[in-house]
Write a sequence for this structure.
């Protein structure tokens, strides 16, 4: 992985503040373990209420974990005063999501002024600490320049 320099010296505080405003991450129990220029690590513990009918963590929860890690990896390289949105992603589910914990490690592959390509891998962590890959995502993230990352909450579109 190539090393990238953050455009904003306060990127970590900005990224963590944005993550803290994402209430959906609280709902899923996702935490931000690490963020650096062009990389982000998020994790989520196993919970039965996040499972599908076979007892595996639902692909929707796994996808949210991978997508948010990818978004914040890209956001870490964006300038202050910007915001980030997912443009598209491709997700491969490699194995059933069974484990004690799930860790998404995202790295920027190609940063751009407007669009960045990010790889996000999700691993299931067993009781003994061993890991098994369960999902692989390639995502495109968009930088919204001069757009607040903290709009007022509303009941939805009018």
């Amino acid at each position: 992985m190539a090393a990238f320099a953050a455009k904003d010296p306060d990127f970590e505080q900005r990224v963590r503040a944005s993550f803290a405003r994402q209430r959906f991450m609280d709902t899923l129990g996702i935490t931000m373990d690490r963020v650096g220029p062009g990389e982000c690590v998020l994790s989520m513990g196993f919970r039965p209420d996040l499972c599908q009918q076979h007892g595996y963590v639902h692909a929707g929860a796994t996808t949210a974990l991978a997508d948010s890690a990818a978004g914040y990896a890209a956001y870490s390289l964006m300038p202050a005063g910007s915001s980030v949105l997912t443009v598209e992603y491709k997700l491969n589910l490699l194995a059933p999501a069974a484990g004690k914990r799930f860790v998404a490690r995202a790295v920027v592959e190609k940063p751009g002024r407007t669009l960045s390509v990010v790889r996000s891998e999700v691993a299931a962590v067993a009781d003994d600490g061993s890991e098994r890959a369960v999902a692989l995502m390639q995502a495109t993230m968009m930088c919204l320049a001069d757009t607040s990352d903290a709009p007022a909450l509303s009941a939805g579109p009018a």
